[in-house]
Each structure stands twice: as structure tokens, then as C-alpha cells.
Amino acid sequence: MIRKTKGFSKSGSGGNYYLPIFSILFASLILLIYLKYKFNGMTLKDFSLFSFGNLLDVLFASLIAIGILITDKLKNYTNKKVILILLILSFGFYFFVFLCEIFHWQVPEFLSSLIISKRIYYMYLFSAGQFIQIYVFALIAGAFFTKSKSVFLKAFFKAIFIVVMLFIFCFAYSVLKKHDDTTFEKDKYETGVVLGAAVWHNNQPSPIFEGRIKKAYELYSNKIIKKIQVTGGGAPGEKTEAKAAYDYLMKMGINPDDIQIEEKSMHTVDQIAFLKKKYASSKIQAKYIIISDEFHLVRALEICRFFNLPAQSAASEYEITWEKLLYFRLRESAALLLFWLFAI
Description:
The protein has 10 helices and 7 strands. With 344 residues, the protein is α/β, with parallel strands linked by helices. The protein folds into 2 domains: 4-176, no CATH class; 189-318, Rossmann fold, CATH 3.40.50.620. The strands form 2 sheets. Strands 5-4-3-6-7 form a 5-stranded parallel beta sheet.
């Protein structure tokens, strides 16, 4: 006689779900990694397991698989049918992004007033798929502690807790991570790359952006860098971030031949992707310095690692109030987590 537990049987019904669950879990992982590289103009040849974001993706999928095996081994309650349905739903969000990329679908018109770019659109889709997987993990973890009817509701709050803990980890990482180089050799670096920031209504760089530009000028004047690369696009009809930086540098008396301009990128990831394309064809590895604010450089350098671009960094000396610094740290922590998970 087969002894049954609530949700699956010891001998077979739990095992019957192994193949579809593990197959869809593996397919979701592969598709997510593929999309991370595809969306950023890269191929799986650029894949590195040692990229922290990739490690995080692999680790999380492994924890779900191991959790399912352990709950079966220890005869704990876990509803395999519900887990399979949830994982299929999660895969559906990733697969929809895949279709958007293959068929070049744009942001739906009814969402265009709320979502201004495909990158943000993908961010929401990826986040939905990832949260479902986190919920599945919380559901599996809950099997060790409760068999009550409220297991699904409790799993939701556990999933929220996991997201909060991931955010706190990113915040601590961004604060504690050492990134800024303080000493540079003269005539060693070809280019200083100024990452774009806000341009105010009078077409002047914001104080934060101005601080980055001044840091580039300082490195240029001290012969640390030979050229300055300014980056950043803008809204239609407005001066781009790169053009605002270019004009500012011209007023400071820099030779226009020593200023390179890129006006299409809208995000930090786009700006680093531009550098990847620019230097990928070079037979000699160019040496350059990423110039931004201290709170921003941690994420910028993580993006460089993803693109396999070795870079040193220099932080702007612009000082901001602790309230604004806290705001920027929190915002960068969320952006770092999203980049690790989805390369967005």
C-alpha cells in the first residue's frame, strides 16, 4: 500500500513532476542568461560564470531545485503542481521578452505614457518573472516550517522579505565596496570617460554632472588622460548630456580634437556598452578611466566587469548633503540589484 502525504505521494506523484519542473527551471535560467547578453548586443561567447549576476542567477535556480529534492526526501508538504504552474508562468514572462527581441516588438501603445523605454519595459517583465521564482523558493522553504492552509499567503510575505534582504545586501555592497583609484601614472591612460548625468532646463550640466566634468578636466590638465569621452543622450529637442559636457569643456579651453562625443546612450549600461563596441575591435587594449560620482562608480564598474572591460575609476569631488547621498545610494542599490539579475 502506498502511503500518501498531502500534496504528493511518496512513491510517484512527486517524482512525476521532477522532469517538467527541472526542465522549465533550467529553460528559464538559460533563457534569462541569453536575454541578458542579447539585449546588450553580446553573445553567449561573452558569458562568464564568475560574473556576480550570473552566479546569482545560477545559485537561485539551484536552490529551488535542491529545495524541491530535500522536501521530498524529508517528506515535507510541498505542492508540486502549484510549483510547476508558477514556474511556467515565470518562464512565460522571460519568453515574452524573447519574442519582443526576436520580432522587435515595441512598448504597447497603452503603456507608452508610463513606460518610456524598452529597457524599463523589460525591467518590469523580468522583475515579475523573478519575483514568481522567489515566491516559489519561499513556498518551498515554508514546507519546513508550516503545513497550514495559509502557507501560500505566508510564502508571499517571505518572498517580500527575501527581496528586502537582497536590497539591503546591495546597499551594503555599494557603501563598503572600494572602487576609486587615487593615484594615476602620467601618460598611461588614453581616455577619461565621463558618464552622463542630468542637464538642467538652461542647458547647463547639473551640479553633479558638472563635478564629473571638472574631474575629467583635472585629469586632462595633469596629463593623466590624453582625451575626454563625454557620453549621454537627451530628450528630443533638448541638448544632450554629452553636448552639454562638450560645451562646458570647450569653455574651459580644452582642444576640441581631444574631446570625443557620444549622444545616443540613455543609461549607464548603454554608455558602457558603447565603450565595449568602441574598443572591441582594437587590437591593443586601450587604457581608460571611468569618471563619475563615488555612489555611482560601484555599479558602473560592475557593468564594466559584465562587459569584460577592465577599467580604473576616478570619483568626482562634488560634495552633496547626506540626505541626497542617502537617496542616491538607495537608488543605486536598487539599480545594482536589477543589473545583477537582468543586466538592465
